[in-house]
Design goal:
alpha+beta; 26% strand; six-stranded mixed sheet; 6 strands; single chain; 60s Ribosomal Protein L30, Chain: A
């Protein structure tokens, strides 16, 4: 039977107690929950536009992956949720700075509302 180990780091926003984990490691794979552009120290969304928010989401995911024993270079799949597809190009201008030459598989969808009414949330799956 596969083991399921939760990941928790103070370098990323805390998960809601009893609701979800920042990530789960199982069979050499890290499954990260969605990251919003929240400052882990204040627990509040950072100021800025979609570009700043995209950087913060990926920064938070990077810290979670590191706590799991992985990193952004090992990301296999990314899901991006936008509150408005008009932000697609600006989000991509930041997104493409990450993950090297071989980008992970990705899905990007627009949704009606995101947590704390932010404009972007990003989740990913990586290997150890």
């Amino acid at each position: 039977m596969a083991t399921k180990t939760p990941v928790l780091t103070d370098k990323a926003p805390k998960p809601l107690p009893g609701i979800y984990s920042q990530a789960i490691v199982s069979n050499g794979v890290v499954y990260c929950s969605g990251a919003v552009p929240m400052d882990p120290e204040t627990g509040k969304l950072i100021d800025g536009d979609i570009k700043a928010h995209t950087h913060q989401c990926i920064k938070n995911l990077g810290h979670i992956l590191e706590a799991a024993g992985s990193d952004l270079t090992k990301v296999l799949k990314v899901n991006v949720f936008l509150s408005d597809m008009d932000n697609f190009a600006e989000m991509n201008s930041v997104y493409t700075e990450y993950w090297g030459d071989v980008k992970p598989c990705r899905t990007c969808v627009a949704v009606k509302t995101l947590p704390l009414n932010t404009d972007v949330e990003i989740e990913c799956i990586a290997h150890l």
